[in-house]
Amino acid sequence: MSGETILEVEGLTMRFGGVVAVNDLSFSAQRHKITALIGPNGAGKTTVFNCTTGFYKPTSGAIRLTHDDGRNFALERLNDFRISKQAKVARTFQNIRLFPGMTALENLMVAQHNALMLASGFTFLGLIGAPSYRAAETHAIDQAKQWLERIDLLERADDAAGNLPYGDQRRLEIARAMCTGPALLCLDEPAAGLNARESAGLSELLLSIRDQGTSILLIEHDMSVVMEISDHIVVMDYGVKIAEGAPRDVRDNPKVIAAYLGADEQEAAAVMESSP
Ligand SMILES: Nc1ncnc2c1ncn2[C@@H]1O[C@H](COP(=O)(O)OP(=O)(O)OP(=O)(O)O)[C@@H](O)[C@H]1O
Q1: What are the TM regions of this chain, as residue ranges (predicted)?
Q2: Domains in the chain: how many in total?
Q3: Mean pLDDT, range 59-76, rounded to an integer
Q4: What is the predicted ipTM?
């Protein structure tokens, strides 16, 4: 194993014309831990995700990812395809982006497209049904079924993803990201729109993913989820880091309380009332 840090963000800046969405931000995320990025609306959290996952090229700064075996990736220099395929960073989005017309199972198979394409020799071995391709396909189906079972959707494997209840779709998105075998899982507001029971189930799922060895970077407005499952929290406001630490320290930090009070009454109350 290579060090405790999986992700090191250093001096990250992202400008959109005159808007500085992220300004000289530095933080690190530890291996096999859940690191949460929180902050009021417009603080710059999603922009950090978009830079980390290659959707945006940062204006300046470095984003380094280190695998368990010590391999290093300069994410700020890679495109989104290489970041997911080589650096093994997977993400979900604020708004659900499943393939709604495909079944739940098919959505998880598509996630394993890269491995299947390789095993198919980019079509030919797949067409003739070569044993190596059939073995890869069986493995992909097994993996998809295991994840469906884990998120309690095995019985709905053949239902169109778009017909599933909202909370199920959210869990399916996470399972789809996990089917790519990520080293780092980036989740953008996974609890958005979930009720209290579904949020509790989500927390359990994320803790089990962490405990089985996947590092998680989480953006979340639901403070009950953040305070319950995060190992470390980084707080942003107006593009800069205003605090970081363990859930209890962050919750009691006057700068954090002030940032949330200046934002949205409900959100401020949620931060102050949440108990880690
Ligand atoms: N593509 C873009 N073009 C111009 N400005 C942008 C772009 N993306 C983000 N911004 C601006 O950057 C700032 C940070 O936005 P960002 O979406 O990263 O914040 P956030 O913390 O994720 O907010 P929220 O919690 O509401 O999702 C905002 O002022 C936003 O308007």
Answers
A1: none
A2: 2
A3: 96
A4: 0.96
